[in-house]
Design a protein that fits this description.
The protein is an alpha+beta fold. It has 4 domains: about 70 residues, no CATH class; about 240 residues, Rossmann fold (3-Layer(aba) Sandwich); about 100 residues, Arc Repressor Mutant, subunit A; about 80 residues, no CATH class. It contains 14 helices and 21 strands. A 9-stranded mixed β-sheet has the order 7-6-8-9-3-10-11-12-13. A hairpin with a 6-residue loop joins strand 15 and strand 16.
Length: about 550
């Protein structure tokens, strides 16, 4: 036997045969596909007459040892050139070609829709998807979908919207080469047998795109808890095996319910060890976080890509349209500023919250305010108010807009920052009709009536209300552009050209120098419902 020529003549026959078998394992790994390794090793053991001594566990051990020897990696010394090549993106900044990618996202944010949209973009050979360059291969890229997180019916809805199936529900041959759902994909998972079956399917195609939706459904048969460090090992095994096929892997996983950052590593649900497995990750999250149980108004979705190192791709924003397909939206960076401002606003309390609320009110009227005025209105020391203004500035919620020379120390005038105003007034919500409420969302107080009949009470019934004082405690509305906001009562209405009001329920928040009819007005009655005169038709 050529493989044993270098062995000593004193080597026992059994040891000689086993050594030859070990050497044969290297040849098999180098020259044959993995699915053929075990049959070829069994044949060799039979030829050598050691099939009773080297059964499948021993043969697998020989293969594992040979694989470790062959794939140890190269050690470089000074002056030697590294052989590794820099990876390229299939979808710029979002999906690396030939690598393991993970898409982390909130529930219902559109992770599966992103996958089907990417498949459709590859099919249609469009140069961009979600505003990012798409490197469309010269030859059609095979696509396999292991969609074991959803039923076939749920998938059918998504596939229909991207025209990936025909009207009779036939899988189109130019779109997807292999598909399984929750009902049909029980044998595909991240157990050893499941990984083997997945690899066998993937090896039927050359350099395919493989969508795995989702990680949790693939891991469920292993019985390993998601929050334990052991959770990562089967994933690592799966990726190691599947990448040998040359496939581009896109694995779908869940984020925490309400992400607070734009870092997929931080927001990844489960064990922190999960992030160490993937070459590249993308966080999908709602741009504007909304309260649980409420219908979502803002449906903008942000995407932020990042590798295991410090390299990041920057973000992109899009929205999944009701008729199907993603549309690219500009302005993610500004939207992120608004959302960060909102998070910081929600954390405010005490005097700082009162200072911010007053700034918001004044800014809504396109007016600035000094620390002196704030101290007077809030009945606080100027030094205390100044510190709070600086703290708000550090948080990006307030900014000085002008300086007035007073002869001693210059006096700064302040307004709420644009991002803080946009969040406070609701302007960040997509689909808004443009009418913004003056009152901050953080502490919105509504008032619908003043008296029992919904009318405001004045001291006089004069036809010229500007000549009469307004009764303190009268409920009023404040003008904001073409809109009026309620939630205020009169503090001092003796001069109708210089009315001061306070927030209903929070007298520390006041606003002064308002003009009756222009800046402030009595609360308006709600329109009465028109009673139908048409008799009921039973």
């Amino acid at each position: 036997m050529p493989s044993t020529e270098k062995l000593s003549l004193s080597t026992p026959p059994l040891q000689e045969a086993l050594t030859a078998l070990a050497l044969h394992a290297e040849k098999v790994i180098k020259e044959q596909r993995e699915r053929d390794w075990m049959p070829l090793m069994r044949n060799k053991a039979f030829d050598l007459g050691v099939h009773d001594d080297a059964r499948d566990p021993e043969l697998k051990a020989y293969l594992d040892a040979a694989e470790r020897r062959l794939h140890k990696g190269t050690v470089y010394r000074a002056g030697q050139q590294l052989q590794a090549t820099e990876s390229v993106f299939l979808l710029d900044g979002m999906v690396k070609l030939g690598e393991s990618n993970v898409i982390i996202g909130q529930p219902k944010v559109g992770k599966s829709s992103f996958s089907t949209g990417l498949i459709a973009a590859l099919r249609d050979r469009i140069p961009q998807f979600l505003g990012r360059d798409l490197s469309v291969p010269n030859e059609r890229m095979p696509v396999l979908v292991f969609g074991t997180d959803q039923s076939e019916g749920d998938w059918l809805h998504l596939l229909h919207r991207e025209s990936l199936v025909s009207e009779d529900q036939t899988l189109k041959s130019d779109s997807i080469d292999f598909f399984c759902s929750m009902e049909t994909g029980e044998q595909y998972n991240f157990t050893k047998d499941g990984i083997r079956r997945m690899r066998e399917e993937i090896e039927k195609h050359q350099f395919p795109l493989v969508i795995i939706d989702s990680l949790s459904s693939m891991m469920e048969p292993t019985g390993i808890e998601e929050n334990t460090s052991r959770y990562a090992q089967p994933i690592r095994n799966a990726i190691s095996q599947l990448r040998k096929t040359g496939a581009t892997l896109v694995v779908i996983h869940h984020s925490v319910k309400r992400p607070t950052t734009w870092d997929w590593i931080t927001e990844c649900r489960g064990s922190s060890s999960i992030s160490s497995v993937f070459s590249w990750g993308v966080l999908m999250r709602w741009v504007a976080q909304e309260e649980d149980g409420l219908a979502r108004i803002d449906k903008r979705v942000g995407f932020a890509g990042k590798g295991r190192g410090a390299n990041e791709s920057g973000g992109v924003m899009g929205q999944y349209m009701p008729e199907g397909g993603w549309t690219y939206l500009d302005g993610l960076e500004e939207a992120q500023k608004v959302e960060r401002a909102g998070q910081r606003i929600m954390e405010l309390g005490g005097v700082r919250a009162s200072v911010f609320d007053y700034l918001t009110l004044r800014t809504g009227l396109n007016a600035d305010v000094s620390a002196d005025e704030l101290a007077t209105e809030l009945d606080k020391q100027k030094g205390h108010v100044s510190r709070e203004l600086r703290a708000l500035k550090a948080k990006g919620l307030a900014e000085p807009v002008r300086t007035e020379e007073t002869g001693s120390r210059p006096r700064n005038y302040w307004m709420a920052s644009p991002a803080a105003m946009e969040w406070s007034l609701g302007g960040s919500e997509a689909g808004s009709n443009g009418s913004l409420d003056l009152l901050p969302k953080r502490s919105l107080i509504s008032n619908k009536s003043n008296t029992q009949d919904g009318t405001a009470v004045l001291l006089s019934d004069s036809k010229d209300p500007s000549s009469e004082a307004i009764d303190p405690k009268t409920k009023v509305e404040i003008r904001r552009g073409d809109e009026w906001a309620s939630g205020f009562i009169v503090r001092n209405g003796s001069d109708t050209n210089s009315i001061s009001v306070e927030r209903l329920g929070n007298p520390m928040v006041t606003i002064s120098n308002l003009r009756l009819g222009l800046d402030v007005r009595p609360c308006q009655p709600e329109p009465e419902e028109v009673q139908s005169t048409v008799p009921f038709n039973f």
